[in-house]
Design a protein that fits this description.
With 116 residues, this protein is α+β, with helices and mostly antiparallel strands. The chain contains three helices and four strands; from the N terminus they run αβββαβα. It has a four-stranded mixed beta sheet with strand order 3-2-1-4. This is RNase H type-1 domain-containing protein. GO terms for molecular function: nucleic acid binding; RNA-DNA hybrid ribonuclease activity.
C-alpha cells in the first residue's frame, strides 16, 4: 500500500531519490513533514504527515485519501493543513514544517496568497 501511495499518478522516470538524513532540532521543537500524491484521471490523491520530536523520535503519523482534488498543489496544501492541524491539536508551539512542493513553499513564504 505504501508503494501505491508513493507512485500514485507519478511516472517512474520522474522520481528522483535524494538521500535523507535527520538533522537534530533544538530541544522542545518538532518537525512536521508532509507529502501528497495526485492522480489527475480521477481528481483524487492521498496525503500523509509525520511528526518527530527533537531527537527524531516518531510522535504521530496520519494519512488520508482525498477526493475532488483539482491539482497537485491543492493536494500538497491539504497535506500541509492536516499536518498543522495535527501538530496544533497536540499542543506543540515550536514547529518546523517540511514539504517537498516548491510552488507551495514559495506560496507559503510569500505575502501574495492565491487568487481564486
Amino acid at each position: 500500500m505504501v508503494q501505491e501511495l508513493i507512485c500514485l499518478g507519478t511516472k517512474a522516470d520522474t522520481l528522483a531519490r535524494v538521500p535523507g538524513r535527520w538533522t537534530r532540532l533544538h530541544e522542545h521543537w518538532v518537525k512536521v513533514n508532509t507529502d501528497a500524491s495526485f492522480l489527475a484521471s480521477s481528481s483524487s490523491g492521498a496525503g500523509g504527515v509525520i511528526i518527530r520530536d527533537s531527537e527524531g523520535r516518531l510522535l504521530s503519523v496520519a494519512a488520508r485519501r482525498c477526493e475532488h482534488v483539482p491539482d497537485v498543489l491543492t493536494g500538497e496544501a491539504l497535506a500541509v493543513r492536516d499536518g498543522l492541524v495535527l501538530v496544533g491539536e497536540q499542543g506543540h508551539e515550536n514547529v518546523i514544517l517540511e514539504t517537498d512542493n516548491l510552488p507551495l513553499v514559495n506560496l507559503l513564504r510569500s505575502d501574495a496568497g492565491v487568487e481564486v
